[in-house]
C-alpha cells in the first residue's frame, strides 16, 4: 500500500514551532538551512518542494531534534562557510564565525600587494579557516597551522585539500610557544580569550558543544595573548605583521602587552557588530 504524501508546508510549520519553542533565534532560517542539508537541495529547490517521503521526514525530524537540544547547526550539517571557503567542522574545533573575517579584511588592507606575503603562520588553527582564507588571497604564499589538538590539525589539512590549498600548507599538532623556530611575513591567531568565570554563561551551543580549551582564556582572558606576544618578535620577519582576534574590551590590554615586547600597533578592525575584533601589530624593521 502506497504511503500518503507528506506535505512539506505542514512539516515546515511544525518544525518551525519546535525550534521556536526551544528558543532558537530565527527559527524559519534554521528550518530552511536544515531542510536544504537533509534534502540535498538549495533555497530555490526547496521552494519547489511540495511533499516529503517518510525517509526524508525522519531525517529532517532527527536534525531538528538535535538543533532543539541546542547542538550547533554546523555540527549537524558538518560544515560551515568562512570567507569564500566551505570548511568541514568537528567538535574538536571552534565553528568558524563571520566576526573572524575581520582578521582577513585587516590583512588585505595592510598588505594590498598580493605578492608581498610569502609565508603565513596560524596559531591555534582549528579548522584552518584563517590560514586557508589568507592563502586563498595570497597565491604565492605558503603557510603553517599549529593546534594543540592532533584531530584539529588533521581536520585543517582535510579542509586544505578540499579547497585545493594543501600543496601550499602544512598543519600539525603542537604548543604554539615551543613548536616553531622560523619567521613569517604574517602571523594570525584567534586564541582562547573568554575569562574563565564567563564560560558558564555562554550560550548552550558554545558551552556544551565547542571545545573548552579553545575558549578558556584564563582568569582575565589574556593568558594566551601573554604567550603569543612574547613569541611574536621571534616569529615575525623584520617589518612583519601579526593580526590577533580578541574579545570585547580586551584590545587596549593586548596592545599594551604587545608594546612591552617592542611591537607597534598598526590598526584595529571591527567585526560586523562594530566591536573592535582584530588588532594589527608590526615587528620593527631590522
UniProtKB/TrEMBL annotation:
<feature type="binding site">
    <location>
        <position position="190"/>
    </location>
    <ligand>
        <name>S-adenosyl-L-methionine</name>
    </ligand>
</feature>
<dbReference type="GO" id="GO:0032259">
    <property type="term" value="P:methylation"/>
</dbReference>
<dbReference type="InterPro" id="IPR029063">
    <property type="entry name" value="SAM-dependent_MTases_sf"/>
</dbReference>
<dbReference type="InterPro" id="IPR004556">
    <property type="entry name" value="HemK-like"/>
</dbReference>
<dbReference type="GO" id="GO:0003676">
    <property type="term" value="F:nucleic acid binding"/>
</dbReference>
<feature type="binding site">
    <location>
        <begin position="124"/>
        <end position="128"/>
    </location>
    <ligand>
        <name>S-adenosyl-L-methionine</name>
    </ligand>
</feature>
<dbReference type="Pfam" id="PF17827">
    <property type="entry name" value="PrmC_N"/>
</dbReference>
<feature type="domain" description="Methyltransferase small">
    <location>
        <begin position="104"/>
        <end position="193"/>
    </location>
</feature>
<feature type="binding site">
    <location>
        <begin position="190"/>
        <end position="193"/>
    </location>
    <ligand>
        <name>substrate</name>
    </ligand>
</feature>
<dbReference type="InterPro" id="IPR002052">
    <property type="entry name" value="DNA_methylase_N6_adenine_CS"/>
</dbReference>
<comment type="similarity">
    <text>Belongs to the protein N5-glutamine methyltransferase family. PrmC subfamily.</text>
</comment>
<protein>
    <recommendedName>
        <fullName>Release factor glutamine methyltransferase</fullName>
        <ecNumber>2.1.1.297</ecNumber>
    </recommendedName>
</protein>
<keyword id="KW-0949">S-adenosyl-L-methionine</keyword>
<dbReference type="InterPro" id="IPR050320">
    <property type="entry name" value="N5-glutamine_MTase"/>
</dbReference>
<feature type="binding site">
    <location>
        <position position="147"/>
    </location>
    <ligand>
        <name>S-adenosyl-L-methionine</name>
    </ligand>
</feature>
<dbReference type="Pfam" id="PF05175">
    <property type="entry name" value="MTS"/>
</dbReference>
<comment type="function">
    <text>Methylates the class 1 translation termination release factors RF1/PrfA and RF2/PrfB on the glutamine residue of the universally conserved GGQ motif.</text>
</comment>
<feature type="binding site">
    <location>
        <position position="176"/>
    </location>
    <ligand>
        <name>S-adenosyl-L-methionine</name>
    </ligand>
</feature>
<dbReference type="InterPro" id="IPR007848">
    <property type="entry name" value="Small_mtfrase_dom"/>
</dbReference>
<keyword id="KW-0808">Transferase</keyword>
<feature type="domain" description="Release factor glutamine methyltransferase N-terminal">
    <location>
        <begin position="12"/>
        <end position="78"/>
    </location>
</feature>
<keyword id="KW-0489">Methyltransferase</keyword>
<dbReference type="InterPro" id="IPR019874">
    <property type="entry name" value="RF_methyltr_PrmC"/>
</dbReference>
<dbReference type="InterPro" id="IPR040758">
    <property type="entry name" value="PrmC_N"/>
</dbReference>
<dbReference type="GO" id="GO:0102559">
    <property type="term" value="F:peptide chain release factor N(5)-glutamine methyltransferase activity"/>
</dbReference>
Amino acid at each position: 500500500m502506497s504511503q500518503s504524501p507528506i506535505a512539506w508546508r505542514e512539516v515546515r510549520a511544525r518544525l518551525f514551532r519546535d525550534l521556536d519553542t526551544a528558543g532558537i533565534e530565527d527559527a524559519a532560517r534554521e528550518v530552511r538551512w536544515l531542510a536544504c542539508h537533509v534534502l540535498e537541495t538549495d533555497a530555490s529547490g526547496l521552494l519547489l518542494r511540495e511533499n516529503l517521503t517518510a525517509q526524508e521526514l525522519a531525517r529532517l525530524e532527527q536534525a531538528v531534534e538535535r538543533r532543539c537540544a541546542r547542538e550547533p547547526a554546523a555540527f549537524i550539517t558538518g560544515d560551515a562557510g568562512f570567507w569564500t571557503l566551505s570548511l568541514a567542522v568537528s567538535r574538536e574545533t571552534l565553528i568558524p564565525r563571520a566576526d573572524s573575517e575581520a582578521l582577513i579584511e585587516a590583512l588585505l588592507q595592510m598588505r594590498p600587494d598580493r605578492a608581498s606575503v610569502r609565508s603565513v603562520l596560524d596559531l591555534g588553527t582549528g579548522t584552518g579557516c584563517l590560514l586557508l582564507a589568507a592563502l586563498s588571497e595570497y597565491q604565492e604564499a605558503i603557510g603553517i597551522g599549529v593546534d594543540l589538538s592532533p584531530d584539529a590539525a588533521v581536520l585543517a589539512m582535510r579542509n586544505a585539500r578540499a579547497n585545493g590549498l594543501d600543496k601550499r600548507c602544512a598543519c600539525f599538532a603542537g604548543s604554539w610557544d615551543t613548536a616553531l623556530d622560523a619567521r613569517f611575513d604574517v602571523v594570525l591567531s584567534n586564541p582562547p580569550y573568554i575569562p574563565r568565570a564567563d564560560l558558564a554563561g555562554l550560550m548552550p551551543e558554545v558551552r556544551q558543544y565547542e571545545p573548552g580549551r579553545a575558549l578558556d582564556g584564563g582568569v582575565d582572558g589574556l593568558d594566551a595573548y601573554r604567550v603569543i606576544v612574547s613569541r611574536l618578535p621571534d616569529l615575525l620577519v623584520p617589518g612583519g605583521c601579526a593580526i590577533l582576534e580578541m574579545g570585547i574590551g580586551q584590545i587596549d590590554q593586548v596592545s599594551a602587552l604587545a608594546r612591552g615586547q617592542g611591537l607597534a600597533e598598526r590598526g584595529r578592525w571591527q567585526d560586523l557588530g562594530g566591536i573592535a575584533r582584530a588588532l594589527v601589530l608590526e615587528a620593527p624593521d631590522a
